[in-house]
Amino acid sequence: MKRTLSLILALIVVWAPVAAFAQAGTYEGSAPGYHGEVAVAVDVDEGGAIAKIEVRHEETEGIGTVAAEKLPQRVVEAQSLGVDAVSGATVTSNAILAATASALEKAGIDPAALGYAAPAGKKGGKAEKKAADELTAVEKAPKTGSITVTDVKGREVTIDLPVSTYAVSTMDVVDFIVPLKGEDAFHMLVGSGNSGGKQAYDDIYFPMFPDLERQVGILSEHNAPFDLEMILARDPDVLIVNSAMQAHKYALDVEAQLTAAGIPIVLIDVPGKSIDTSVQQTVALLGQIFEESEKAEEFNAFIDAQFDLLRAKNLSARSDKPTVYYEKSGDSEIYGSTSTSVSGWGSVIAYAGGDNIADAVLMESGAAKGGSNVLDPEYVLTANPDFVILSGVNSLGLGKDPALADNAEFDIVNRPGWAELSAVQNENVYEIMHELSRTVYSFYPCLKLAKIFYPDEFQDVDPDALLAEFFDRYTLIDSDMGVWTVRYHK
């Protein structure tokens, strides 16, 4: 009884500031949608609750109209503006929520107290997100045939040829297409998710390709549903989705509508289950789609040669493996997650011949199958690893100042007891760009770590020189336009 009474009192306390100054009545608000203003009329009852929301709009039939029907009901039922957008109609959903927030403010209700947060814009990018009708079209060539390919999920997908335009789930997927199409990879791009390092790509490629800013529609935010209206408006010949980022779940939510519109979805998987073959499999598949199989074969031969340097050493069979502790996004006070040898960066460390100290604790747990966990700090101290490998601490990657290599922060070494760790004593603490394992040049972190672990075995191998050669041969930029690894120094 006390628990029930406490819950009722808590609800009263939470609701009181929301409704204290609310005036019953009907209030109007509006916000920009895809095709003009989305207007709402919100009925607020005597208790300050949202009784009804009516929406007036000119959004796309079957897409925006679904959001206009479903979203008001969700808001009224939840008495919250923190509800999920309607899948495939993100822009319309956000407009309805923004318009409702505006109306509630007029009623004396604070939208933030009802869970409203305005959608975040692009952080630090060169331009604000553009609506579909502000973007320029890319001319398409007449279709002369078709091809049926099998994607990474075993789905048979038929694509009309030639492919003149394409869209990607994350911007870094473009790197898999540049070796095949060169500059045309950017001339053909009409849509991308707002993730995969898109800001860095914008900073580098907008000056090189001025039309990009007016050409590429934002298809989704990071780990968010796809904007069906934007995809349909950009009308790519194919949508390429990296399933390793879980984006395929959102893509398949709108697959029926895209199929009806003649837009096929192809799923790729990088880094995939086989760290030394997933890039080649992806490029071979894209070679078929873009009718560049010969270039794909030449590219894959280069990648195979780099992994052959590792295969020749048979590192997995060594009995003298150095012990390694991996952590993501940790500092002196926050203990980040780790992974075992069968997932994420743990699999890269294993391929490079490291003995992951997390395996003894987590290999039999759910974390071993792709999840993550935080190791007991005392266990790490007791294990006293030879190397500490970090990711996600400093901002590394494309477009970063090379001076960062000598000025990276390693606050993590200030943890209690860490000054005595062998890895810290010997300055064997490294950070690698977090996304590096799923790039088209994922051979590099494998070689880089192998040389760090076994300097004598790899004395004739220069991973940085090989990375520079890769950039020179298969990209439009140089490898020194980014920072990929940094090392701790006392």
Number of helices: 18
Gross morphology: globular
Determine the N-to-C terminus distance: 60 Å
- Beta-strand segment tally: 17
Low-confidence stretches: 1-20, 121-127, 367-371
Strand order in the largest sheet:
8-7-6-9-10
Largest beta sheet, briefly?
5 strands, parallel
Structural class: alpha/beta
Radius of gyration, in angstroms, nearest whole number: 26 Å
Proportion of helical residues = 25-40%
Q: How large is the share of residues in beta strands? A: 15-25%
- Give the overall average pLDDT: 87
Task: Supply database-style keywords.
about 500 residues, alpha/beta, five-stranded parallel beta sheet, 18 helices, about 35% helix, globular
Describe what you observe in this structure.
There is one protein chain. By secondary structure, this protein is an alpha/beta fold. It contains 18 helices and 17 strands. Strands 8-7-6-9-10 form a 5-stranded parallel β-sheet. β1 (25-32) and β2 form a beta hairpin. Mean pLDDT is 87; it is low at 1-20, 121-127 and 367-371.
Please give a quick description of this structure.
By secondary structure, this protein is an alpha/beta fold. The protein has 18 helices and 17 strands. The longest helix is centred in the middle third of the chain and has 19 residues, at 293-311.
Write the layout of secondary structure elements.
Blueprint: H1 2-19, E1 25-32, E2 37-44, E3 50-56, H2 64-78, H3 90-106, E4 145-150, E5 156-161, E6 166-168, H4 178-181, H5 184-187, E7 189-192, H6 198-208, H7 212-215, E8 217-218, H8 228-234, E9 239-242, H9 247-253, H10 255-260, E10 265-268, H11 278-289, H12 293-311, E11 323-328, H13 344-351, E12 355-356, H14 359-362, H15 377-383, E13 387-391, E14 397-398, H16 422-425, E15 429-432, H17 443-453, H18 463-474, E16 482-483, E17 485-487
Parallel strand pairs: 6-7, 6-9, 7-8, 9-10, 11-12, 11-13, 13-15
Antiparallel strand pairs: 1-2, 2-3, 4-5, 14-16, 15-17
